[in-house]
Each structure stands twice: as C-alpha cells, then as structure tokens.
Amino acid sequence: MNGNVISNFAELKVSIPDDSSNENQIRQAINKTKSLNLEDLLRIIQAQQSTINKLTKEIKKNTQTISREEFEKILNDLETEKYNHAKTKLELMQSKDIINSKIQEIDFFKNELEKERCAYASV
Hints:
By secondary structure, the protein is mostly helical. It is built from two helices and no strands.
C-alpha cells in the first residue's frame, strides 16, 4: 500500500465476518433493544401508576365519601333527632299552656284579693 491510496486489488483486504458471529451480534442488539424497550415500558407504567395514586389521593382529599352503612346510621340519627325535636316542641307548647293558665289564675286571685281588700277597707 502506498500511503492511503490502493494501487491494486491484491492490497485491498476486506474482512467479512462469518454468519454465526454476525447473528450473535444481531441477537445481542435485538435483546438489548427489547430489554431497553421493556425497561422503558416499565418506567412508563410506574410513572402512570404514581400519577394515578397522586390523583386518587387528591380526589379523596377534595371529596368526602362515606360508606352506605355510615350514611344510613346518620340518616337514622337525623330522623331520631327530628322526632326528639318535635317531642320537645310539643312539651314546650304544653308547658306554655300550663304557664298561661297559671298566670290567668294568679290574675284572677289578684283581682279577688283586691276586691276583698276593698270590701274589708269599707267595713
């Protein structure tokens, strides 16, 4: 060879790898690509799962949910409270009526007492 220029074909040496080593290199490249793709997919799946978990926590934080049993218990407590309120209201009205009748009795007896005072004073 003269420098970098080839003067005849005999000086040209070309090496062609045999099929088995070429196949191995191709398989390794494919396996590496498959491995990288699988790892990439796993990373994507993990990132998506992480995002789903964050969004789920955010939704739970922003909305209050209760179980059906809890809801029914609260509803039952509300009905009981309404009943007790109505019962107390009725008792209050009855007490007012009793107080009003006692006030009327007191007024009646005041008037009677005043009349007897006047009658005693004039005697």
